[in-house]
Amino acid sequence: MSDTDPSAPEAAASPEHPRRSDATRAAILDAARDRFAADGYERATIRAIARDAGIDPSMVMRYYGNKAGLFAAASEIDLRLPDLAAVPRDQIGARLVRHFLDRWEHDETLTGMVRVAVTNEAGAERLRGVFAEQIRPALAALCPVREEIDARAALIGSQLVGMGLLRYILFLPPAVGLAREEIVAWLAPTIQRYLTAEHP
Predict the structure, then answer these.
(1) Which of these, 153, 179, 152, 154, lies nearest to 98 by C-alpha position?
(2) Which end of the chain has less Cβ packing within 10 Å, N or C?
(3) Do 139 and 185 fall within a single domain?
(4) Measuring CA to CA, which residue among 11, 79, 73 is closest to residue 36?
């Protein structure tokens, strides 16, 4: 048997193999995010996702086990929050607004997850996890009163997620029509107040 025979065992272990595997996983996750966002968790099917990805449904099951496992993988979100402790205190509100506008505009997983979250408990639970695991810890060190962290984080989230929902998911014309710096100018003082002001 020739060393270049594609049926040889070495071919399966060639450098191209893991690249094909990565490409397949990426295609599945892209299709899953689009399908979950369009149909919701309950209506989205492994068969439809596989069809969108151009592969056999058995490949989806091979990589992710079941729909719940696929959903968990497709909804992994890294908000890449900046180190707020390194930001001048009077600029934190503006920095957060700009950061979230960047995330909304460049992270399709975030927009897809919010679409699912507003109609499905699995999506809502995943979004609550992002809140608890990423947003709350980032804000905790900045809140003046420890007992108020959750309330303040929720208020901040209402502004950042609310604007994202209206501008990038519902495409409400007045929200879409605002320039980025207009959004920063409107929201930053409110975010700043929620984070640093004394309890009313």
Answers:
(1) 179
(2) C
(3) yes
(4) 73
CA distances from 160 to 41, 70, 98, 136, 197 (A): 24, 27, 10, 14, 18
Residues 190 and 172: their CA atoms lie apart, in Å, by 21
Alpha-carbon span 68 to 140, nearest angstrom = 31
pLDDT number for residue 105: 92
Which of 166, 136, 161 minimizes the C-alpha distance to 151? 136
Q: Do 125 and 183 share a domain, yes or no?
A: yes
- Domain final residue pick, 74, 99, 119: 74
Q: What is the CA radius of gyration of the chain?
A: 21
3-state secondary structure of 170: coil
Contact (CB, 8 A) for 112 and 40: no
- Say yes or no: 28 and 53 in one domain: yes
Contact partners, residue 139, CB within 8 Å, separation at least 6: 84, 149, 152, 153, 156, 195
Regions of the chain with pLDDT less than 70: 1-19
Q: Are 64 and 92 part of one and the same domain?
A: no
